[in-house]
Specification:
The protein is mainly alpha-helical. Helix content is 53%, strand content 8%. It has helices spanning 20-34, 47-50, 57-73, 91-100, 105-109, 112-119, 126-129, 131-141, 154-170, 216-224, 242-255, 259-266, 271-295, 298-327; strands at residues 6-12, 39-45, 81-85, 146-148, 179-181. Helix 3 crosses helix 14 (298-327) and helix 10 (216-224) runs antiparallel to helix 13. The chain starts with 5 loop residues before the first strand and ends in a 6-residue tail after the last helix. Bound molecules: adenosine monophosphate and tryptophan. Adenosine monophosphate (AMP) binds next to helix 1.
Length: 333
């Protein structure tokens, strides 16, 4: 008997450049899962989500394509994975509406990302508030079993699981309960400029992060100026040495070496030598991505997205009919 393949689904917002935090936390797993025959993988550029913060339409349009290009440069292969743009598949928004009718506002009020964003000055809107409902719709639309994301998405994933269960209890057993796939190390890569907050694309300080398309020289400069402490020993201590601990985690996740062996090698050699090694490890890791990025042309990316949208719509329509039937919105014969 052949085991049924599991469905993997994940998304990335086309806001700002993709960075090394997302790479270690999520995108690296995207590529690995695509190579595993046990999975059908679907990756989505979630442009509707990106509209929940203020944006410029011209810049946005360019960013959507750039993000797709970067996903391809990371090694996502359109012959092995389904890659498409969320806004091209209207079933996402339809399912979000249906799931919204099952979402208590009390649950949304507890979402920490919503609260953080509003605290940072992003205007509160119904779209921003219901962001996690749309994310649940993304995941449930294709009956995903596994969702590779960084640690910051844990609470949203929990809500998707809750909504799947609510739907199944209220109407019919339609959705599998999706599992998060969060790496054990580097699930939350911290900012280079302030190692007590996460590396993020919304931080106005560009030194906070390594972008996946940064040149080797820019990577070296950013790592060199990463905030550390004045005790010169390279060792892991998240409380008193958050900067060095973050660099150790990044280095460990990048090279596959344990933090212990890295501390042994670099312990007393000074921060300069350690930072140089970290920078070179990242430069080497991203070299193939840079090469691929230069090779890809925009017309090819557009063609892949058009084909992806067509396939995604066909499959989404089939799944969505089950949902419509279950909730009483079936075809009128
Ligand atoms: P975003 O860049 O916010 O669209 O996130 C894309 C993916 O990267 C999501 O799965 C996030 O959970 C993950 N991610 C974003 N920032 C980090 C970070 N600093 N550390 C680890 N994972 C991250
Ligand atoms: N909220 C996710 C993030 O900020 C992006 C996202 C939207 C997503 N829909 C998704 C991730 C579905 C995984 C699955 O990173």
């Amino acid at each position: 008997m052949t085991e049924q393949k599991k469905t993997v689904f994940s998304g990335v917002q086309p806001t700002g450049a993709m960075h090394y935090g997302g790479y270690l936390g999520a995108f690296r797993n995207w590529v690995a899962l695509q190579e595993d025959d046990a999975y059908d993988v679907i990756y989505c550029i979630v442009d509707l989500h990106a509209m929940t913060v203020p944006y410029d339409p011209h810049e946005f349009s360019r960013r959507r394509l750039e993000t797709a290009k970067m996903v391809l440069a990371l090694g996502i292969d359109a012959d092995k994975s389904l890659l498409y743009m969320q806004s091209q598949v209207p079933q996402h928004a339809e399912l979000a509406w249906i799931l919204g009718t099952l979402t208590p506002t009390g649950v949304l009020n507890r979402m920490t990302q919503y609260k953080d964003k509003v605290e940072k000055g992003i205007p509160s809107s119904l779209g921003l508030y219901s962001y996690p409902v749309l994310m649940a719709a993304d995941i449930l639309l294709f009956h995903a079993d596994l969702v590779p994301v960084g640690d910051d998405q844990k609470q949203h994933l929990e809500m998707s699981r809750d909504l799947a269960a609510r739907f199944n209890n209220r109407f019919a057993e339609v959705f599998p309960i999706p599992e998060p796939l969060i790496p054990e190390t580097s699930a939350r890569v911290m900012s280079l400029a302030d190692p007590t907050s996460k590396m993020s694309k919304s931080d106005p300080n560009p030194k906070n992060r390594i972008n996946l398309d940064d040149t080797p020289d820019v990577i070296r400069k950013k790592i060199k100026s990463a905030v550390t402490d004045s005790d010169p020993v390279v060792r892991y201590d998240i409380e008193t040495k958050p900067g060095i601990s973050n660099l150790l985690e990044i280095m460990s996740a990048t090279t596959g070496r344990s933090i212990e062996s890295l501390s042994d090698e670099f312990g007393t050699g000074g921060y300069g030598r350690f930072k140089e090694a970290v920078a070179e490890a990242i430069v080497a890791e991203l070299a193939p991505v840079r090469m691929k990025l230069e090779d890809l042309d925009d017309a090819e990316v557009a063609r892949i997205l058009q084909k992806g949208a067509l396939d995604a719509r066909t499959s989404a329509e089939r799944f969505q009919q089950q949902v419509r039937d279950a909730v009483g919105l079936g075809r009128i014969e």
